[in-house]
Amino acid sequence: MKKISVTSRYVNFFSRSQQLPDPLPTTAGGIWRYLYKESWQILALYLVLTLLQGIGFALIPKLLGTLLDDALTPGVSLRGTVTGLVLLCLITSLVGSWRTLNYTALMVMHEALVMRMLLSKTSQLGSAMKRDISLGDAVATTGDDPENLGMWMVSLCNLLAYVPALILVIYLMLTQSLSLGLTILVALPIITVLISWISKLIEKRIRTIREENGELTNVATDAVVGLRILRGIGGENAFNERYRAQSQRVKQAGIEAAPSQAALEVFSEAAPTLLTAAVVALGAQQVLSGQLQPGQLLTFFGYTSFLLLPMRAITELVVVNAFTRVSMRKVLRLLNIQPHVNNQASQPLELNPLGALHDDASGVTIAGGKLTAVVASSPEVSAALAMRLGRFDDADTVTLDGVDLRSLPLDQVRRTVVVSPTTAQAFAGPLYQAVLGNDAPKPQAQGTLELVAQQGYANSGVIATSPVADLPSELEARSQQALDLAHSDDLVDSVGGLYGLLNEKARNISGGQRQRLALARALATDAPVLVLLEPTSALDSHTENNIAADLAAERAGRTTVITTASPLILGRCDEVIFIDDDGAEVARGTHHQLRQQVPAYRAVVERAQGIQSAQPATQPDTQAAVAAPSKPASAQPATQPGTQAAVAAPSSEPAAPSQAAVESAPGEPASEPNHGQER
Q1: First-to-last CA distance in the chain?
Q2: pLDDT of res. 530
Q3: To which H or E segment does residue 563 belong?
Q4: What is the pLDDT of residue 225?
Q5: How are beta strands 357-359 and 501-502 bridged, if at all?
Q6: Transmembrane residues, as ranges (predicted)?
């Protein structure tokens, strides 16, 4: 029969699949119930082990006192007492070791469970999280607070387990000396009340520290996200001053909290020591008066030493409770944020992807199976329309073939309607993974040394490749085709092929390459309805014209919506819709028709083209567009906030405009490498 070690049982227990509650708990009671449900077996074992250890600690002084009295009594054998004492110490030690193992396991388990809940919630919220909580506070909540919640349950178990042992010790003391037993019985509640009073002062200080520390994390996060832009505009000194000022506020909050924390630490250590001294002094007097035996005094000394354990358990729970109350508020604040979209629909519905796409807010209807462009004088207006088409906010009503997108499961919407921003929100990893997204096989796990080496290679410009085994030929062809359609040969070469590694946010490629990466990712989804926001705004005219031609051919017969004012793309579209600053439709038709008949449309296109509006537009539109000079760098907007509001599909939420603007490729410093295909 195969033997299974205790360690293997632990590994199997903690490796089991743990399902997150659906929906996630939004109350403190819900969180505690979930943690208890997932760990009640190990909690029960930890409680029993702590109880046994406490009883062992309580009985050891009793045996020591008996041993001393027997040693002072002539003719009494010590063998039985010594044997019992040794066995008790050995068993207590073994139980304590096993208890420590369970303690560590519980701490890690509870912290991981709470962290999984928070990470799951943040992935559901997307940009909605920034509505009620800062990014820095969210990072602090996810990283720091789960540990406090996990520690509270363990501290509570410690106190509950020591209560029976404490009752046993008090009973034994009362039976041997009523005065000493009453002294301890009266002193313990007084000490507990004083500790609780001091802890309330600490809780207020902790709340202030957490608020200030969250703001400090927010300042640091903003700087990391926009570091390249910060350096480009020479804003390092302004950031340093802001960070230094906030750091001083955190320091001041810590200094203000130090006296109450120090008072609690001093009192929690001094009170048991003073109680022990008082018991020993009273016991010594009783020994001298003949009321107690020397062995009984030794026993009482051991009892008072044992009382340090429940006293410390009380102190620990009080202190942890102060931290936990603050952490619980932070956790519940995050868990109670409502997302912009809900996913209550469970069954997919029959849907015709070639049906008309209608936006109720603007009244714009986009014909199915056509390449349609949306043009507005302000890019933010056309981007807002595009975002509504992707169902990133359930406040908007959008229908596809007459079916309200809100009545569909979110997964079905994301598979059917894919919205792609101008720049790719890329994670660190191989290029093929950035193109294929969730469809890509995961790369092989790497150690710390390999990751550090690859980061160093990427920062120094040396090509690093991913240690993936084999990419299936079908996926390799699919990713390569998408990159070819986006004319990204220079991108592929710059990172060393499909297996080349991208840095976090793809910082090791240029802005125009990131824009083409976003386009390739969108095309790789092969979505029935594809919405592209300014897909070529950072490219030169030749590349833009080639992409427009290939895009029209690739997406023929499927619904494609593009927000752009580029005549190179507009001339390839089946239909162009011109909307005003309120998002309402002004006119629709071909690019040639609108340019001839709508002066406002012509002004927008000419402004985007970088020519004087007074220049006559009598040439055939497509030819005139091709012949037009490429936009100079000074005419290219540094960023188009409206076009940055989206999150690359299949993500479930759009990124906030403010953060995306920081990452905007066209607005990066001039020192970024140019690969000859950007404006």
Answers
A1: 72
A2: 96
A3: strand 559-563
A4: 65
A5: unpaired
A6: 42-64, 76-95, 101-119, 156-174, 180-198
Cα-based distances in Å from 556 to 83, 349, 374, 526: 90, 25, 18, 12
H or E element in which residue 476 lies: helix 473-485
- pLDDT score recorded for residue 580: 93
- In this prediction, the residues of the chain whose per-residue pLDDT falls under 50 are 1-4, 611-677
Eight-state DSSP code of residue 426? P
What residues have CB less than 8 Å from 449, skipping those under 6 apart? none
Alpha-carbon span 605 to 569, nearest angstrom:
11
- What lies within 8 Å, CB to CB, of 171 at 6+ separation is none
Q: Distances from the Cα of 458 to the Cαs of 160, 454, 463, 466, in angstroms?
A: 54, 6, 6, 12
Cis peptide before 657 (omega within 30 of 0): no
CB under 8 Å to 446, separation ≥6 — which residues? Answer: 454, 467
Instruction: Give the Cα separation of 515 and 492 in Å (integer).
Output: 13
Tokens of 365: 């209807």
Share of the chain above pLDDT 90, in %: 27
Q: What is the dihedral of CA 603, 606, 612, 618, to 10 degrees?
A: -90
Of 361, 373, 397, 354, nearest in space to 587 by CA: 373
Cα 477 to Cα 311, 435, 485, 498: the distances in Å are 67, 12, 12, 10
Rg (CA), the chain: 35
**What is the maximum alpha-carbon separation in the chain?**
126
> Which residues share a beta bridge with 418?
530
Structure-token match 């919630």, residue found: 121
> So what's the pLDDT on residue 17?
58
Q: Domains of the chain, with CATH numbers? A: 22-200+262-335 (1.20.1560.10), 357-426+516-662 (3.40.50.300)
Instruction: Please give the Cα distance from 200 to 130 (Å, whole number).
Output: 31
What's the token pair of residue 99?
Answer: 């208890």
